[in-house]
Amino acid sequence: RFQQVQSMMYDLMEWRSQLLSGTLPKDELKELKQKVTSKIDYGNKILELDLIVRDEDGNILDPDQTSVISLFHAHEEATNKITERIKEETSKDQPDYGSYSRMSSSPTHSLYVFVRNFVCRIGEDAELFMSLYDPQKLTVISENYLVRWGSRGFPKEIDMLNNLKVVFTDLGNKDLSRDKIYLVCQIVRVGRMDLKDSNSKKYTQGLRRPFGVAG
């Protein structure tokens, strides 16, 4: 029984990370919620806890707004589903429930990045685009994190000073198995067409020009 509960807890932890990632389509999200509630009900049953009745979407039925007959039918249906589930679980071979093997198969991972400073003599405002890059496949494997940097050497939003943080989410085991992953920063200068242009007649503002890259 301990191994059964341990396995279910690992499954719930993995599914929870998927739900919190916010990357699932609506239909997959609904299906995953139903799997979560089904797993919880099954765990309550084998632990001899109270049975929770739910609607089709997995929401707990409110006894104050649901008739007694409807609650009875819901209890009866839930009991039958859980009984069938227990028969299926006991009839098949149980896999290895080692904690390491279960946790290592988690489908999602995250990378936390804290930008402390940006040192580069540009002379104008800049936009920094940070992303994860696979050098072997020559492809970007994440979305860009944008930081607007001022010409005076501080973030444009001064209240973000020492608070430039980002979490790259939804990284799978396939990403962890890559030989190398680079954190690439693309620098875009925002201002004049040419830094040497000091003539007021030719002076322009707001032009975005590629300036550099770092990894």
From TrEMBL:
User: Which Pfam family would be a valid example here?
Assistant: DOCK_N
Share an example GO biological-process annotation for this protein.
cell migration
> Where is the sequence biased in composition, kind Basic and acidic residues?
82-95
Which residues lie within the region annotated Disordered?
Answer: 82-105
GO MF terms here are: guanyl-nucleotide exchange factor activity; small GTPase binding
UniProt cross-references to InterPro entries, sorted A to Z: DOCK, DOCK_N, DOCK_N_sub1
Q: Where is the signal peptide?
A: none
GO CC, alphabetical: cytoplasm; plasma membrane
Q: Which Gene3D superfamilies match?
A: Dedicator of cytokinesis N-terminal subdomain
User: Domain named Dedicator of cytokinesis N-terminal: which ranges?
Assistant: 2-202
- The name this protein carries in UniProt is DOCK2 protein
Organism expressing this protein natively? Pluvianellus socialis (Magellanic plover)
